[in-house]
Design brief:
The complex is a heterodimer of chains A (about 290) and B (about 575).
Chain A lengths: L22 H15 L7 E5 L7 H4 L3 E4 L5 H11 L4 E7 H7 L1 H10 L4 E6 L34 H7 L4 E6 L3 H13 L4 E6 L11 H7 L1 E2 L10 H9 L5 E7 L6 H5 L17 H5 L3
Parallel strand pairs in A: 1-2, 1-3, 3-4, 4-6, 5-6, 7-8
Antiparallel strand pairs in A: 5-8
Helix pairs in contact in A: 1-7, 4-5
Chain B lengths: L4 E8 L4 H14 L3 E7 L8 E9 L10 E6 L2 H6 L4 E9 L14 E4 L2 H8 L5 H13 L4 H11 L4 H21 L17 E4 H11 L2 E6 L6 H7 L9 E4 L3 H13 L3 E6 L1 H16 L4 E7 L16 H6 L8 E3 L4 H18 L2 E7 H5 L1 E4 L19 H4 L33 E3 L13 H21 L5 E4 L5 E6 L3 H13 L4 E6 L1 E3 L5 H6 L2 E6 L5 H10 L4 E4 L8 H12 L6
Parallel strand pairs in B: 1-4, 4-5, 5-6, 8-9, 8-10, 10-11, 11-13, 12-13, 17-18, 17-20, 20-21
Antiparallel strand pairs in B: 1-3, 2-3, 7-14, 12-19, 16-18
Helix pairs in contact in B: 1-5, 3-4, 3-6, 4-6, 5-6, 7-8, 7-12, 9-10, 16-19
Classes of the chains: A alpha/beta (about 290), B alpha/beta (about 575).
The complex binds thiamine diphosphate and iron/sulfur cluster.
GO biological process, one term (chain A): organic acid metabolic process
Organism (chain A): Natribaculum luteum
GO molecular function, one term (chain A): iron-sulfur cluster binding
């Protein structure tokens, strides 16, 4: 079926309720195109969505999907992929969902290196709850709950990922459609946990991290000649707080996904009609 | 009833108390004797009193009693802690060469054995507990050769030399007592039989049930007393193509299990106390997304971190009502170790047949207690697997709407929707914790909301009709006194019947393994003069449910010391309750 799959097959018939101009439109389009381009179809794809404007993505896409509770999308994706290595698993959510309430899960998902793709729609604000500071908000960014700014430095998700032993770290910009799609595609094709932070502007609540801001400041790492397989070069990019960039930042070409390390390759949905044939052996162990 | 022997070994945590007790228990089981074990332990790894107790008889034993006949004491505290249970005829084995001076009441038989020196003679001081086991065999007239098999099982993997040394240690202990004491086995004559028994605890039974039922995925986070379920599955589940993940916390554990379940695997997580609180966040999602998931709570003493190594049945309300909003779920409560196995199998079937979370609620007493069973108790041919309304490629067609979309949450008459697992052609759909329509799409439409709530609740009605929500019955069916219990109190209650009978008190016992849905006990309660509900908690959570269901006040026996009920203690309490008025 895969050769006939078009990216629109991944579209549901539900019209997005995102604000006109929201960055999430572009993020989603790129994901759907990347899925189609990598030979997947809705019946073999599982999308796990977080909670937030970004988390609504599961509703607007067509595939097997679960829209869960705030911050826990990664564990769900992990369970899906380990039970069903044959599925393409994509996890998507916001910066609040992933780096605040879900931050504990984030570093553990990274270090587990399960073969799935994690897309964070980073708008540096809480959209769905109407404009509070998020963990990636600038320290002087004024919001309803932080009238003088959060007064804390933003988290650096790439640094967290690198420190946790990530095997694929990337960043894209939702309005640079082609590059965004390419980067997601590379994350899907990566053997292991493919992490992509996507600049996905919130046009309603964030007037600082806007399309114009990213267009003006964004540096493409590929054009810069950055070698993503060079760990030290990746570290330098990641720790450079003054630079906004897109591209694949780090890629471990020797990545061994969790399934291979732990021999988890069975389709766990297939079980016998009764107890397994040798089940009495389980009892005999207690002699 | 055949005479039973109550034996214990106690010392400091780290003294190898557990493995010593287990070896003796296995030896007794090998000799065709029934065994029931219990453990006293504190929440620390080294230091602190700990004991392993064994009750053994040729008849079935299923409870602890207030009597200790033989005690292997490695510390004075072991003696002090057990003074209540020791009696004039008790024998205490200790090592007089060690620095502590054993203070042993005059009436008891003090058996001073140089455990350490004899162990050194056999090849190493570490075997002093085995020397003590040899001594215990001699005191009770139990053939030391039964120990050999248990020692082989325990140490076989470490090489024959170690096994031989241990056998020698046991014999040195036995011979020492033979040569230095004239005890004439203190009158014991431990009968043996040709019966083959298996010896296992409740958590092992749950793990084994999960494997038999086709559980392939387990995610958990270590917590006493649930951890041993994860330990059991690890290393075994792989043989069936499954996998265990030690998650970063319980939130992750339940969400991973949920993910695996949505992917089509039979999936489970287990926890206790503080962990169940964290998992509560996801209960509603499991129910609303209609995901089949078994969530096991091995209760311990709460609230908060409470008493992690102590018994309690305090989480019933949590299992029934935990989580915001109104969430249909099943609550199954095994009443004995063998039922831990069978109810786990059932739990997986209910989960898939009704696409709903099933709470499997056990407790600490059951989880650490080992008991002997004939192996046929766990006859694997009797395990039936019902995956419910799983639809394949062809069947999916029946459930598509006019635009070809799969109605994963179709509001059927019985409340059970078709379930297409990922990969099923044309079955793609999304599910969410948000209120949704038949297609799984978010909605706030008032009619659809009511339709979906009713649909999910209807599953419970369907299950009430289709399944047997029975109770287990013991004692005299015509008795005027009715005792109702849930969870692990059953064994002690059943044995309490013998004590009560001796005193001429007839009692009917109903032991209830299902809390929701649960059997209707109205008739039984109406027929009784006295109704007493027994449970290990302070407020009587199950008694409240019964009063609610039957509009009848009941008497309550509650224990929340952290220690399980004992048979003789229960008999006393029941007699006492009979003299009390029913609360107004
Ligand atoms: C446990 C819990 N706490 C709080 C909320 C409320 N809530 C919904 S979305 C959200 C933040 C979303 O921010 P982000 O992840 O950045 O996504 P965005 O809406 O910006 O795409 C919060 C706090 C919730 N749903 N669940
Ligand atoms: S509030 Fe912001 S993030 Fe949410 S839909 Fe609107 S633009 Fe997008």
């Amino acid at each position: 079926m895969s050769s006939e799959v078009r990216f629109t097959d991944f579209k549901s018939d539900k019209q997005p309720t995102w604000c006109p101009g929201c960055g999430d439109f572009g993020t989603m389009n790129g994901m759907m195109k990347a899925l189609a381009e990598t030979g997947n179809d809705p019946d073999n794809t599982f999308v796990v969505a977080g909670i937030g404007c970004s988390g609504k993505i599961g509703t607007y896409m067509h595939s097997y999907a679960l829209h869960g509770v705030h911050g826990r999308a990664l564990p769900v994706g992990t369970g899906v992929k380990l039970a069903r290595p044959d599925l393409e698993v994509m996890v998507a959510g916001g910066d609040g969902d992933g780096y605040s309430i879900g931050s504990g899960h984030f570093i553990h998902a990274v270090r587990r290196n399960v073969d799935m793709t994690y897309v964070v729609m980073d708008n540096r604000i809480y959209g769905l709850t109407k404009g509070q500071a998020s963990p990636t908000s600038r320290s002087d960014f004024e919001t309803s709950t932080t009238p003088e700014g959060p007064k804390q430095p933003p988290v650096n998700p790439h640094a967290l990922a690198l420190a946790a032993g990530a095997t694929f770290i990337a960043q894209s910009f939702s309005s640079d459609a082609l590059r965004h799609q390419e980067i997601i595609q590379e994350a899907i094709e990566h053997d292991g946990f493919g992490f992509v932070n996507v600049y996905s502007p919130c046009v309603t609540f964030n007037d600082v991290d806007t399309y114009d801001y990213f267009r003006d400041t964004l540096v493409d790492l590929e054009e810069e000649g950055h070698d993503p397989t060079d760990y030290d070069a990746a570290k330098e990019v990641i720790l450079d707080a003054d630079k906004e960039y897109q591209g694949v930042i780090y890629k471990d070409e020797n990545s061994v996904p969790y399934s291979e390390q732990h021999g988890v390759d069975a389709n766990m949905s297939e079980i016998p009609d009764g107890a397994p044939e040798n089940a009495m052996d389980l009892v005999r162990e207690f002699y | 009833m055949a005479e039973d022997l109550n034996w214990a070994v106690g010392g400091e945590a780290g003294d190898g108390i557990d493995s010593t007790g287990k070896i003796f228990a296995q030896a007794l089981s090998r000799a065709g004797r029934h065994v029931f074990t219990s453990k006293d332990f504190a929440s620390r790894i080294r230091g602190g009193y700990t004991a392993y107790k064994i009750r053994t008889s040729v008849d079935r034993v299923q409870s602890v009693v207030d009597r200790l006949d033989i005690l292997v004491a490695l510390t004075q505290r072991t003696i002090d802690e057990n003074l209540d249970e020791l009696h004039d005829g008790s024998a205490i084995i200790y090592d007089g060469e060690r620095s502590w001076e054993a203070e042993i009441p005059d009436e008891m038989t003090a058996v001073d054995v140089p455990l350490k020196s004899l162990a050194e003679d056999a090849g190493g001081a570490i075997m002093r507990n085995i020397v003590a086991l040899g001594a215990a065999c001699e005191i009770t007239g139990f053939d030391v050769e039964y120990l050999d098999e248990a020692l082989e099982k325990r140490f076989g993997g470490k090489g024959s030399k170690i096994v031989e040394n241990n056998k020698k240690a046991a014999r040195l202990g036995q011979e020492y007592v033979q040569e230095n004491y004239d005890l004439d086995h203190l009158g014991y004559n431990l009968e043996t039989t040709d019966n083959d028994y298996v010896l296992l605890n409740g958590n092992e039974a749950i793990g084994m049930g999960a494997l038999a039922a086709g559980c392939r995925f387990y995610a958990g986070y270590p917590i006493t007393p649930a951890t041993s379920i994860m330990e059991y599955l690890t290393g075994r589940i792989e043989e069936y193509g499954g996998h265990v993940v030690q998650a970063e916390d319980e939130l992750s554990a339940i969400n991973m299990s949920l993910g695996a379940a949505r992917a089509g695997a039979r999936s489970m997580t287990a926890t206790s106390g503080a962990g169940i609180d964290l998992m509560t966040e996801t209960f509603g999602l499991v129910a609303t997304s209609e995901t089949p998931l078994v969530i096991c709570d091995v209760q311990r003493s709460g609230p908060s971190t409470g008493m992690p190594t102590k018994q309690e049945q305090g989480d019933l309300n949590m299992a029934l009502y935990g989580g915001h909003g109104e969430v249909p779920r099943f609550v199954v409560t095994p009443t004995s170790i063998d039922e831990c196995f069978w109810k786990t199998v059932e739990a997986f079937n209910y989960a898939e047949k009704y696409q709903t979370p099933v709470f499997l609620v056990s407790d600490l007493a059951m989880s650490v207690t080992e008991q002997t069973f004939p192996p046929e108790t766990f006859d694997m041919d009797d395990v039936e697997i019902d995956r419910g309304n799983l639809v394949d490629e062809d069947e999916v067609e029946e459930w598509l709407d006019d635009q070809g979309r799969f109605r994963a949450h179709a509001a059927t008459d019985d409340g059970v929707s078709p379930r297409a697992i990922p990969g099923t052609t044309d079955g793609a759909h999304m599910s969410t914790g948000l209120e949704h329509d038949e297609l799984g799409r978010r909605t706030e439409d008032t009619e659809v909301r009511v339709e979906q709530v009713d649909k999910r609740n209807r599953k419970v009605e369907t299950a009430k009709e289709r399944e047997d929500w029975d109770y287990r019955e013991f004692g005299d069916a015509d008795a005027d006194t009715l005792v109702v219990s849930w969870g692990s109190n059953e064994g002690a209650l059943v044995e309490a019947l013998d004590y009560l009978e001796e005193d001429g008190v007839d009692v009917r016992v109903l032991s209830v393994p299902y809390i929701f849905p649960r059997p209707d006990l109205s008739e039984e309660i109406e027929a009784a003069d006295d109704v007493i509900v027994v449970e290990c908690n302070a407020t009587g959570q199950f008694a409240d449910l019964i009063e609610h269901d039957t509009l009848t006040r009941v008497k309550r026996i509650n224990k929340y010391t952290g220690v399980r009920f004992k048979a003789d203690e229960l008999a006393e309490k029941i007699k006492q309750k009979l003299t009390e008025e029913v609360p107004a």
